[in-house]
From TrEMBL:
It is an enzyme of class 1 (oxidoreductase). One of its GO terms (molecular function) is 3-isopropylmalate dehydrogenase activity. This is 3-isopropylmalate dehydrogenase. Pathway: Amino-acid biosynthesis; L-leucine biosynthesis; L-leucine from 3-methyl-2-oxobutanoate: step 3/4. Residues 6-354 form the Isopropylmalate dehydrogenase-like domain. Its cofactor is Mg(2+); Mn(2+). InterPro entries: IsoCit/isopropylmalate_DH_CS, IsoPropMal-DH-like_dom, Isopropylmalate_DH. Its EC number is 1.1.1.85. Binds 1 Mg(2+) or Mn(2+) ion per subunit. It holds the Pfam family Iso_dh. HAMAP family: LeuB_type1. It comes from Chitinophaga rupis. Catalyzes the oxidation of 3-carboxy-2-hydroxy-4-methylpentanoate (3-isopropylmalate) to 3-carboxy-4-methyl-2-oxopentanoate. The product decarboxylates to 4-methyl-2 oxopentanoate.
């Protein structure tokens, strides 16, 4: 007997539109193969929503999100806003607002290298082999949500980096619980030598750590962590960190998995789950059909596992991605000088290969 689930799809902007179509197709194929009933609705957010309604997160999208069992999101962003920092209404505000409104405080970003992609990274294969890191990025606090100010003369600006004890406690607990199911190591990343918000972070993580004596705890400053990630990624198991540091470190960590186009994420918290690639709308390749759809497809796999508890189905998707890579197919971002030209393909051909391997 299958399950019935309502999924809201928010493709967003740029390559978000191109790759999310494949995340959705994979979910539909899984529903068909396993006799589940997945109902899809679509919502707008980001630049497309500003163009249509003037609002980067229309109330209608938020309402649909609240009523859904899970959300599959692509990316938001447009060069127009990146090139004009004076614009007040911006696509990113939609994403920040939906995260806050839905209470999605824990952003899980798994960094797992498919062996087939050992040669895709700019890091040496012997450093990468066996890397498997799970990031817990706090998602509804920090400098992204603190008070913003600009003086009347426009010459001085500030963004408040702010954390409350309860925010650190709840993300730390999630990280420790996950570590227990993995290699029992947590590395908490902060800048406690300089920032008061980080000193609170470290204090709270030290307290939570006492509840998990079976889990090894390490505290690391963000600057050192950025270096250690590339020097020796295998030393990390679970990493827990704030919103800003997590955002930056995981883009860096995408190189451990070969490309930004490989990294999926799950945002969880108080209500429905929200699944998205970690990448943005990628103006440089948008509209060209070149984007790697695997991060969206792997985000769909996370949805099946985390929100729906469908572990077999989730594994089926991951195996289909693995099989596609083993057959040698590559989008441009994960190809290298040894890849045969005939095996390098665009978004739709790559998504199609994964679908074939699902059946
Ligand atoms: N979650 C979101 O919606 C995010 C939105 N953004 C927005 O996206 C826009 C572009 O930002 P960028 O800093 O350029 O970051 P980005 O993540 O869009 O792109 C960074 C680089 O990675 C490449 N890349 C990203 N995804 C790829 C994929 N699936 N396949 C192949 N290559 C891929 C891009 O071509 C680019 O060279 C901005 O407007 C930014 O605000 C940025 C990050 C996250
Ligand atoms: C565009 C930002 C709001 C977020 C971001 O870069 C991310 O979530 O990775
Ligand atoms: Mg980011």
């Amino acid at each position: 007997m299958g399950v019935a689930k309502k999924i809201l799809v928010i493709p967003g902007d740029g390559i978000g539109q191109e790759v999310t179509a494949w995340g959705q197709k994979v979910l539909s194929a899984i529903a068909e193969n396993f006799k589940h009933e997945f109902t899809f609705e679509e919502g707008i957010m980001g630049h497309v929503a500003i163009e249509a309604t003037g609002n980067p997160l229309p109330d209608e999208t938020l309402e649909k999100a609240r009523k859904s069992d899970a959300i599959l999101f692509g990316a938001i962003g447009h060069a127009k806003y990146d090139n004009d920092p004076t614009l007040k209404v911006r696509p990113e505000q939609g994403l920040l607002k939906i995260r806050k409104e839905l209470g999605l405080y824990a952003n899980l970003r798994p960094i797992k290298l498919f062996d087939e992609l050992l040669e895709a990274s700019s890091i040496k294969p012997e450093i990468l082999r066996g890397s498997d890191i799970l990031f817990f990025r706090e998602l509804t606090g920090d400098v992204y949500f603190g008070e913003k100010n600009r003086t009347a003369d426009r010459n001085t600006a500030s963004d408040l980096m702010i954390y409350h004890r309860y925010e650190v406690e709840r993300i730390a607990r999630k990280a420790y619980e996950a570590a227990r199911t993995r290699r029992s190591k947590v590395c908490s990343v902060d800048k406690a030598n300089v920032l008061e918000a980080s000193r609170l972070w470290r204090e709270v993580v030290q307290e939570v750590a006492k509840e998990y004596p079976d889990v090894e705890t390490e505290h690391m400053f963000i600057d050192n962590a950025a270096m250690q990630l590339i020097k020796d990624p295998k030393r990390f198991d679970v990493v827990v960190t704030g919103n800003l540091f997590g955002d930056i470190l995981t883009d860096e960590a995408s190189q451990i998995a070969g490309s930004m186009g490989m990294l999926a994420s799950a945002s969880i918290g108080d209500s429905t789950g929200f699944y998205e690639p970690i990448h943005g709308s990628a103006h440089d390749i948008a509209g060209k059909g070149l984007a790697n759809p695997l991060a969206s497809i792997l985000s769909a796999a996370l949805m099946l596992d985390i929100s729906f508890g469908l572990k077999t189905e989730s594994q089926r998707v991951i195996k289909a991605v693995e099989a596609t890579l083993r057959q040698g197919y590559r989008t441009m971002d994960i190809a290298n000088k040894h890849t045969e030209n005939a095996l390098i393909m665009g978004t739709d051909a790559m998504g199609g290969k994964v679908l074939e391997n699902l059946n």
